[in-house]
TrEMBL record:
Single annotated GO MF: 4 iron, 4 sulfur cluster binding
PANTHER family: IRON-SULFUR CLUSTER ASSEMBLY 2 HOMOLOG, MITOCHONDRIAL
Protein name (record): Iron-sulfur cluster insertion protein ErpA
Single GO biological process annotation from the record: iron-sulfur cluster assembly
Listed Pfam families: Fe-S_biosyn
Length: 107
């Protein structure tokens, strides 16, 4: 059985800061074909759908659709704040390689 993705407290805290729950939204993590490495992450605020996996913490939600779930098994969703910018990042043990920006990967 595949492990579900995990969300760090830092990622949930960032969602609380931007008020995602007050908008009725969750952070949606999806995997699509494309990008320079074959697959790419689509990360956005969105309304949860009925068949989504919902990960909850600190009153916040992160959702993953059933199609993307196998690609994100065991992944960690985090929030990174550096001099060059702030963004949600995904540490994916299923990815065999990724591009320099961390948006696309191959398996």
């Amino acid at each position: 059985m595949n492990l579900p993705p995990k969300v760090t407290p830092r990622a949930f805290a960032r969602l609380a800061e931007i008020g995602a729950d007050q908008q009725g939204s969750a952070l949606r993590i999806a995997v699509e074909g494309g990008g320079c490495s074959g697959f790419q992450y689509d990360i956005k605020l969105d309304k949860p759908a009925e068949d989504d996996l919902v990960l909850e913490g600190q009153g916040q939600k992160v959702v993953v659709d059933s199609t993307s779930l196998p690609f994100l098994a065991g992944a960690t969703i985090d929030f990174s704040e550096e001099l060059i910018g702030a963004r949600f990042v995904i540490e994916n043990p299923n990815a065999s390689s990724s591009c320099g920006c961390g948006v696309s990967f191959s398996m």
